[in-house]
Write a structure and sequence with these properties.
By secondary structure, this protein is α/β, with parallel strands linked by helices. Helix content is 41%, strand content 13%. It has twelve helices and twelve strands. The protein has an eight-stranded mixed sheet, with helices on both faces. The chain has a two-stranded antiparallel sheet with strand order 6-12.
């Protein structure tokens, strides 16, 4: 038996070149790889397998009461901002003396300049008249806003907001700058306002103004919870993020330094684009905002911290969307609750998803079998992993 050493040397050379190429690619892509894979594995392992921790230390607790319109020395915004636009009687009866029965208080977070998106919501899934006349329930819609971040445009935008509110009476605005780093202020606003002005609402939903809500499906789901009597309380439902790591890259807008948040994992939380809490949970979260320092400017995470303190855990619902759009198909519309990333197609999607002549849910055995196959093909592909999980195809 003879050994061809030249062939062995060629094989080893190919191995070395291949290994070097792989190492080069890993080095170039390490930052993304670390963020999307390595950090998540470490975070999830630490969160659930090695150590269970509280995600809080003394720096996150406010020892003194909030001061109106003041800022703390360390930069944490311990503030109750004054209202610039408010509707204290939104959830009261016509005589203004008693609370109206409200199934759902719908809080939509919207930048001041997004006038067209707010109008599209009023005309579609946020339409209060549709809820009453077609679904037989009382849904109250309000938009949460701050002031425009550009001081040169602020006066003009504010005038437009006042005109918009004179027509629709649904804007709730406080005197903070409406930026990404003040989203926690909006979170506090929604629980503060609901506690004071709409405490009787059975459910509160927080939503971004670029999501789509299939309101008939959501109302049906909430009514089922109410009729069950056991699950209409202690509810926080949405697209749950478990064991997510903080982003340490300084170039990312989600960057959180170790000094602000020292742990390798966030508490469990729902995607802030759209989630629902029951009235009792809304009251608990309001209490948590009174003594937690809102220095964590990622509102989803701050929500998770508040819930952790109050002993509330998020519940996964497979038809609450993640970061991406849901596939456009009648077999998806049958079950969808939310879909993310709809800035310009809300009206067309609303028409398609709620059209009574569309391919309905009572389609028989073969129709249901067909839809099951369609959902498997649409939802079990990696492309849609950030919308609904593959499990939704079998629900």
């Amino acid at each position: 038996m003879f050994i061809n050493f030249r062939r062995i040397h060629k094989f080893q050379c190919v191995q070395l070149l291949t290994t070097g190429l792989i190492l080069c690619m890993v080095m170039v892509c390490w930052e993304d790889l670390d963020h999307h894979v390595v950090s998540h594995v470490k975070s999830y392992t630490y969160r659930y397998l090695i150590n269970s921790y509280d995600f809080l230390n003394s720096s996150f607790y406010v020892k003194s009461s909030r001061k109106y319109g003041s800022n703390s020395a360390d930069g944490a915004s311990l503030v109750e901002y004054p209202y610039l636009i408010n509707h204290a009687g939104k959830c009261k009866s016509r005589d203004g003396k008693s609370w109206d029965d409200v199934l759902l208080l719908l809080f939509v977070k919207s930048p001041p300049e997004n006038i067209e998106q707010r109008q599209a919501i009023r005309d579609t899934w946020g339409n209060e008249s549709f809820g009453w006349s077609k679904l037989g329930v009382n849904v109250k819609l309000v938009f949460a806003l701050g002031i425009h971040p550009d001081v040169w445009k602020r006066s003009k935008v504010q005038s437009a907001l006042l005109q918009e509110d004179r027509v629709y009476h649904d804007l709730i605005q406080q005197n903070f700058v409406d930026t990404f780093h003040n989203l926690t202020a909006k979170l506090i606003l929604q629980f503060q306002w609901s506690h004071k002005y709409c405490p009787q609402a059975h459910f509160l939903m927080s939503a971004d103004d670029d999501i789509f809500i299939h309101m008939p499906n959501l109302v049906k789901y909430l009514q089922q919870l109410l009729s069950s009597q056991s699950r209409a309380t202690d509810l926080w439902v949405g697209h749950v993020h478990r064991g997510s790591p903080p982003v340490r890259r300084k170039t990312s807008k989600y960057h959180v330094p170790y000094e602000l948040y020292p742990w390798p994992s966030y508490p469990d939380y729902t995607a802030g684009a759209g989630y629902v809490v029951s009235g009792d949970v809304a009251a608990k979260l309001y209490q948590a905002t009174l003594f937690l320092n809102p220095s964590v400017y990622i509102d989803d995470v701050f929500m998770g911290m508040c819930a952790k303190v109050m002993g509330v855990s998020p519940q996964e619902h497979v038809y609450f969307s993640g970061e991406g759009k849901a596939p456009y198909h009648p077999c998806i519309y049958d079950h969808m609750i939310t879909s993310h990333g709809h800035a310009s197609d809300v009206r067309s999607l609303w028409h398609a998803a709620t059209d009574p002549t569309a391919y309905g849910s009572s389609r028989g055995f073969f129709g249901n079998l067909y839809c099951r196959a369609v959902r498997v093909m649409l939802l079990c592909l990696p492309y849609y992993q950030n919308t609904y999980s593959c499990m939704a195809a079998f629900t």
